[in-house]
Amino acid sequence: MKIVLTYKVTHNWAVDNLLIEYQRILQRAIDEIWENTTWKEKKIQHRYPIGNGKYKYYETTRLIPYFPKSNGFKRELRNELLKNWPFAKHYVDSAIKTAYSILESWRQNYLKGRRKRRKPVVKRKFVRVKTTLMKVEGSKIRITVKPREEYLELDYSGEWFYERIKGWKAGELIIREKNVYLTFSKEVEFTGRIKIGIDSNLMSLDVYHPEKGWIRVDLSELHRIAETYDGIIDKLKSIQRKAPKRIGMLLKKYYTRRKNRIEDFLNKLAVQLSREFPDAHFIFEDLNKSKMLENGSRKFNRKLSRSTWGRIVQKLSYRAPIEFVNPAYTSSTCPRCGSGLESQNGLVVCECGFIADRQFLGAFNIWVRGVGVPLSGGEAGDLLPDEPGGELRRMSPKSVVRVDLRGRTFTHVPP
Question: Is the pTM of this model over 0.85?
Answer without folding.
Answer: no
